[in-house]
Amino acid sequence: MTSDFVVSHRELLIYETGLEAAMKVFEVVQSFPDEERLLLTDQVLRSSRSVCANVAEAWCKRRYKKAFVAKLNEVEAEAAETQTWVELAILCGYLDAEVGQELFHQYSRVLAAAGRMIESADAWVRSS
Predict the structure, then answer these.
(1) Does residue 46 fall inside a structural domain?
(2) Is residue 53 in some structural domain?
(3) CA 16 from chain center: how many Å?
(4) Domain that holds residue 77
(5) Is residue 36 part of a domain?
(6) Helix/strand/coil (H/E/C) assignment for every residue in the chain
(7) CATH code of the domain containing 103
(8) How many domains are there within the chain?
(9) Which of 116, 109, 61, 57 is nearest to 82 (CA)?
(10) Contact 79/21 with Cβ under 8 angstroms?
(11) What is the pTM of this model?
């Protein structure tokens, strides 16, 4: 799908996947111990939400290929960071391994989609 057929970032599969995953993260961190509230919980919430926000920003920066690609690079970085926090939550025993693996795979899909969008950036960038 290219930008000719998409009206809003909300229609992008990468955004939908990131939003669904961020809401799952929000759900699962509710059971994390209180002592992790200011550490792991806040970090994983921030990075998971940042994925969606950066997709929205990338969409709005499509006039400039470099800005578009830079924002998609941030999407990749935040998705990978979220995967790291999810992995740590599993290892610490705060997150069920099966749930954690599903989240990890959702962020892998986000990473793959961001990579594809970067590779085909010319098709997404709109002329001024």
Answers:
(1) yes
(2) yes
(3) 10
(4) 9-30+41-122
(5) no
(6) CCCCCCCCHHHCHHHHHHHHHHHHHHHHHCCCCHHHHHHHHHHHHHHHHHHHHHHHHHHHCCCCHHHHHHHHHHHHHHHHHHHHHHHHHHHCCCCCHHHHHHHHHHHHHHHHHHHHHHHCHHHHCCCC
(7) 1.20.1440.60
(8) 1
(9) 109
(10) no
(11) 0.91
User: What is the distance between the alpha carbons of residues 74 and 76, in angstroms, rounded to a whole number?
Assistant: 5
Each residue's pLDDT tens digit, 26-61: 999 999 999 987 789 999 999 999 999 999 999 999
The CB-side HSE value for 50 (13 A sphere, CA atoms) comes to 19
> With 80 as the cut, is the pLDDT of residue 2 above it?
no
Whether 35 maps to a domain, the answer reads no
